Amino acid sequence: MLLQLHGRTLRPLTAISDAPFIGRICERPDVGPADRGRDILLVRSTLEKLPEGFSAYLMQVDDRVQRDDRRNVFALAPEMHYLADGDVVRLDPRRCSLTALYRRNSPSNSFLMTERCDNYCVMCSQPPKERDDSWLLEELRTVVPLISKETVEIGITGGEPTLLGEGLVAFVEQLRDELPATALHILSNGRRFADAAFAKRLAAVRHPDLMLGIPLYSDVADEHDYVVQARGAFSETVRGILNLKQHRVRVELRFVIHADTYARLPEFAQFLARNLLFVDHVALMGLEPTGFAKSNLYALWIDPLEYGRQLSDAVRTLDRAGMSVSIYNHQLCVLDPALHQFARKSISDWKSMYVDECDGCAKRDDCGGFFASSTSHRSTGIRRLGWPETTPAGTD
């Protein structure tokens, strides 16, 4: 079942606030008074009396609240009943909306830092918007202190986070100090790091577990520049990667496979093995059909069965070169069985789904399934696995 992270899911019972505010979900009504100020009490069962001091109260039960009660009390819609102790949310009383910003028990927590970008990728899943959204970073800086210190990993996405300049550096410093045991994965187009001083500045933060995920879509400059719709982007991206690695910042290269990129996938792998052998990870990714990818799907879509040979050749090249390589966003049934060891469950838990053909599949627990947005185009190779496996069509 897909999780709803945002929506008009509140019904005010008594509300004294009008402005949006952020708080951490708490399920313990007996928590000490000193810890209640930023907490939002989640009430799953009937209480004789609501304890004082919480910033708000979310009711999953149909309790009656006295009209003169000077507290923020909201009835919570069933679709948000998955919220649990330690989650962080934004409440907007005026719009009766709630947004889940962080879920303590999820492995897929990512923060959008900006919607601005200096690329305009033909398959962008988060189309850029040119507007002042500096409030996003300000909000994130208030969220970090509420996050569990035991969180395994956090992602930063955009837009292009490096457009925030020193704001990004300062945020990485905050994460280093407040969540020192939490891995940090930043998605960036890498172009800003062509500025050697900026790459050095980020490296100087010395975050203990930092990875930059940077897309490179071809070994040919003009082809990469076409995909990202920015002249000179290939050169800036490669120089950015070199600058980051010079300062020992870990880099993951990302390659989204679609009709404009698949043909040179083997040559791209050879380019990496010869020139960028020192990158830390290579992710070969299936298309997420949302945003610009959905608008351009007629031109971008290609059945994974049709690029099976190119994908297999690329993985073999990278693996033989000793490079760490993974396949993201692909169902196991459309891959050559020899590639299953490289496939990862990469689709975030809140936007992944399975289809009828997945019922009874012996590999379902190992397979990441589908993007929820994959409603109109699916591979003809989707099938249940469990019988002796054969090589899918198109991989010969």
Could you walk me through the main structural features you see in this protein, from its secondary elements to its overall organization?
The mean pLDDT is 92. It is globular, with a radius of gyration of 23 Å. Helix 6 packs parallel to helix 9. The chain has an 8-stranded mixed beta sheet with strand order 1-8-7-3-4-5-6-2, covered by helices on one side. The longest helix is centred in the middle third of the chain and has 14 residues, at 233-246. It has helices spanning 135-143, 166-178, 196-204, 221-228, 233-246, 265-275, 292-295, 297-300, 308-320, and strands at 6-7, 10-14, 21-26, 39-43, 56-59, 73-76, 88-92, 97-102, 110-112, 153-157, 183-187, 210-215, 250-256, 281-285, 325-328, 352-353, 370-371. It contains 9 helices and 17 strands.
Q: How is this fold's topology laid out?
A:
Layout: E1 6-7, E2 10-14, E3 21-26, E4 39-43, E5 56-59, E6 73-76, E7 88-92, E8 97-102, E9 110-112, H1 135-143, E10 153-157, H2 166-178, E11 183-187, H3 196-204, E12 210-215, H4 221-228, H5 233-246, E13 250-256, H6 265-275, E14 281-285, H7 292-295, H8 297-300, H9 308-320, E15 325-328, E16 352-353, E17 370-371
Parallel strand pairs: 3-4, 4-5, 5-6, 9-10, 10-11, 11-12, 12-13, 13-14, 14-15
Antiparallel strand pairs: 1-8, 2-6, 3-7, 7-8, 16-17
CATH topology of the largest domain: TIM Barrel
Question: Count of DSSP helices?
Answer: 9
How many domains in all?
A: 2
Please, what is the CATH homologous superfamily of the largest domain?
Answer: Aldolase class I
Oligomer category: single chain
Range of helix content: 10-25%
Strand content: 15-25%
Would you state the CATH class of the largest domain?
A: Alpha Beta
Helices and strands: which structural class? alpha/beta
- Morphology: globular
Low-confidence stretches: none
CA-based gyration radius: 23 Å
CATH architecture of the largest domain: Alpha-Beta Barrel
| Terminal CA distance | 36 Å
How many strands, which pairing sense, and closed or not: the largest β-sheet?
8 strands, mixed
Q: pLDDT average, as an integer?
A: 92
How many distinct beta strands?
A: 17
Order of helices and strands: EEEEEEEEEHEHEHEHHEHEHHHEEE
**Largest beta sheet: strand ordering:** 1-8-7-3-4-5-6-2
